[in-house]
Design goal:
This protein is mainly beta. The protein has two domains: 142 residues, Ribonuclease Inhibitor (Leucine-rich repeat, LRR (right-handed beta-alpha superhelix)); 130 residues, Ribonuclease Inhibitor (Leucine-rich repeat, LRR (right-handed beta-alpha superhelix)). It has one helix and 15 strands, in the order βαββββββββββββββ. A 15-stranded mixed β-sheet has the order 1-2-3-4-5-6-7-8-9-10-11-12-15-14-13, with no helix packed on it. It is elongated and about 70 Å long. The two termini are 43 Å apart.
Length: 278
């Protein structure tokens, strides 16, 4: 059982030291959850005015979840790698440009979000997080993905929308457990030929890119329920989609002259919008 705690005097000495340092110049207190032994297991910070995370975060040895939305935060300390029980890191709306190299040592992380920040390069240390099931690096400035992304074999949800990605490495086709991928609002002009090998995909969002065609292997995505290809540069309706059983397909905003009346069992409710209704 966990509980929220407000009185900092209830905390263990080393953990209280970290929280006092964290809140030294803040406008309001962070939210803290502790376990039965009064050890901190969760820290949430919403616009408290935090500018840095003290190195003494390593004192929070049982920390499992770290959520922070702070506009002035510029980096995470290397000592975060000493948090062996950390499972979730969520950081939003920060000034973070890079991640600590030691991040790859936190083997228990399964949920990582660094969104609305200033990342320009995909941090390759992420590729060492073998248990990662959800990765959200949306709304950054990332231009390309490293080949090592294909090593994230446990990944189920990948959110990379609103970056500056121009192409996807072939290794992304190794993500056999991936169920949802969001790549809208990038600059992608071509997809890997073997994208159909990611055959557990349920949803794909590729809207607002520069795609002129999609690979033939798309027809292998037999579980795919939702596909958004709106606002690209497709000039013809892709043949490999015409018989697919979609719950929804968005393909409006492309210079396509002729749209079929239905795709599989999904009927056109507007030009370029198909939905299946039982």
């Amino acid at each position: 059982m966990s509980r929220q705690i407000e009185d900092r005097n209830e905390l263990l000495p080393d953990e209280r030291e970290f929280i006092e340092e964290l809140e030294a110049d803040t406008e309001k207190k962070v939210f803290i959850d502790v376990n039965e032994d009064n050890q901190i297991i969760r820290i949430d910070s919403f616009d408290c005015g935090i500018k840095k995370i003290p190195d003494t975060i390593e004192n929070i040895k049982m920390l499992e979840r770290f959520f922070i939305s702070e506009h002035d935060l510029e980096y995470l300390p290397e000592t975060i790698s000493n948090l062996k029980f950390l499972k979730t890191i969520e950081i939003y709306n920060s000034k973070i440009k890079s991640l600590p190299k030691s991040l790859g040592k936190i083997r228990e992380i399964f949920d990582l979000t660094i969104a609305g920040s200033l990342l320009e390069i995909f941090p390759e240390q992420i590729c060492k997080l073998g248990k990662l099931t959800m990765l959200n690096l949306s709304e950054n400035k990332i231009e390309k993905l490293p080949p090592c992304i294909g090593s994230l074999s446990s990944l189920k949800f990948l959110y990379l929308h609103k970056n500056q990605i121009k192409y996807l490495p072939d290794s992304i086709c190794n993500l056999k457990n991936l169920k949802k991928i969001s790549l809208n609002n990038n600059q992608i002009s071509k997809l890997p030929e073997n994208i159909g090998d990611v055959n557990n995909l349920l949803e794909i969002n590729l809207s607002n890119n520069n795609l002129k065609s999609i690979p033939d292997s798309y027809s292998k995505l037999k579980y795919l329920m939702g596909l958004d290809l709106s606002n690209n540069n497709l000039t013809e309706f892709p043949e490999q989609l015409k018989k697919h059983q979609f719950a929804y397909l968005y393909i409006f905003g492309n210079p396509i002259k002729h749209f079929p009346r239905k795709v599989g069992k999904a009927k056109a409710i507007k030009k370029g919008i198909y939905k299946y209704k039982k």
